Amino acid sequence: VHQYLDVLKQLGDTEEAAAKRQEWLERCLSRTEEMQGLITDWLTLARIESETLSRRRIGVDLGRIVPGILRSYEDMAAKRGVTFDADVPENSYVVLGDPNCVTVLLDNLIVNAVKYNRPGGRVTVTVDQLDGDVVISIADTGLGIPVEYREYLFDEFFRIKEDGAEAATGSGLGLPICKRIVSEMGGSIEVESEEAVGSTFRVRLPVYRGEAGASAPEEAQSELEFAQDIDR
Predict the structure, then answer these.
(1) Whole-prediction pTM value?
(2) pLDDT, greater one: 144 or 215
């Protein structure tokens, strides 16, 4: 950013310089957004590790959270020619966890599905129930993930450098954060991918039988904490 600002200082007042100035200002903005994203991801990871992000345990209705997240990224998707398709009815799928954590989890997965998609592509979000778990699937029609990289996807700072993926910026912390959150909630995350076809990230979380927004019963809370202690 400092280098870009030095260039701006040296530009004159001609029409050509004005166009150049706009170009470099946009580069500065892009770089600062990247740095802001990195700082945000670092802070999120630190809060997860210190357990200050995921202390609350209440019923979280995915049917209320998912539509809001998709709306917040409609402009980003439209600029890339990507459309959303979601089937998540309210009051049908409730998980036990912290609403902030669930939002961060879905934010990261949906943003990745948009960034690594192709123009005219689609992001499909579905929620189902299987064997006592809520299963969230986020599928894209993008680049796909080469087989040799898949085992590293959830490693901190790992990013794929492939044709078409070079323009997608990020900190390399999004998926590790997702894995930490899912683990804290007693669930699992996996990915299926086919190159040049797309990828599907599938999250399984324990279903919550109580009402959305209600705190977990004491016995359920104890069981959850016990399970987390075993995982650690």
Answers:
(1) 0.71
(2) 144
